[in-house]
Amino acid sequence: MSRIRRAPHKRPALAAAALAATLALTATACGSDDGSGKKTDAKPAASDSPQGSDDSGDDGDGLGLRDKLPRKLPGSFQDLDQWRNGGWKNWDKDKWVREAKEFANPYLKGHWDLGRMKKAEDNEKKVPKDIASTSGAADTAEPRPVRAEAVKTPYTRNAAPAGKVFMDTPEGPMVCSGTVVHDPRHPGKSNLVATAGHCVHSGRSGGWLRNITFIPAFNDRGLDMPSVNSAPPQEVAPYGEWWVRWAQTSNYWIQKGEKSGGGGSQQDFAVLSVQPVNKSGKSLEETVGNAIRVSFKAPSLSRIRGVSNYGYPAAPPFDGAKMYSCTDKPGALTIDPSQPALYRIGCTMTGGSSGGAWLVEGSDGKPELISVNSIGPHPATWLAGPRLGATAKAVFDAASRKG
Fold this sequence. Notes:
There is one protein chain. The protein is an alpha+beta fold. Helix content is 17%, strand content 22%. The chain has 11 helices and 18 strands. The protein has a 6-stranded antiparallel beta barrel. β5 and β6 (172-181) form a beta hairpin. The radius of gyration is 19 Å and the shape is globular.
């Protein structure tokens, strides 16, 4: 794939190294306009409610959600064995689109071995490079490309508590990025991971993705791909595998999400509730030793000196082995005027970085998450992510209750 390789412009005061130095977080009281005077902290509309299941019933959480598995559960011991041995991963695209309304993710032992992880392609959404001019809704000028730089190793000391999210889709195994986030309901013991909505649900054209799992600090030593292929499991997955027991995303993404063109991206946010495969008894936060606080008071552009995003880009010229980061001062991009504008920065990370954290410096000098990677053009010159306001908070709270 051809790439634009311009030299990046001067970095803002907030540097990735500064973010890496401190990872304990506190909330910030930032403004919440979209850079053009629009407020972003309004209550979500009914169509913006979080979705983790069919919304035709209520389980007492106030969101109209029900705790349900798919209607066609195993009906015999033979069916159960087929389910347990991986039969559930077989796809019928027509039935998947029609029937996959409720999230379910039964654990498949050994499913994500290194061989299958290597086959996982980037789960990206494609948008034209000139999406702003074609939509006529650009809020700021397109940013200059900022070349993605490899994060210093070990990642556990030099970056956000990030990792790779693997999932099965009708097109095969795919991969995104995710970040361990603080859970106020379980202080110090969070099992929550922030990522993009399109990493768990295919939007209006499909349903929930399957066999979703999280590998925190994937390839913590930053080995090249040939070395990863021969590395022992403890080097590829130093904190083990964390299977997703619940996923939550916005109803807006489910109804509007598109694989191309950017539809649904302005609420392209998801939260995963995970559990350890090794049954250690410790939470994800206790295991990795950190979690990032999420801010839902989307700061205005004028309040952000700079933002650093993280991810594991997997599309060429990257191969998914290493974590990368870009730092830039964000602008704004609007696709749907009814929704808060996206943040947008120059960045050459490609697909696979989807769902990676956007971090800013909080009022106490510590980093906090304000967005996740959602969309970018081909060739890769910028990335955009949703502003995390009231809708994203509802998604987060619903996942926290499940956690």
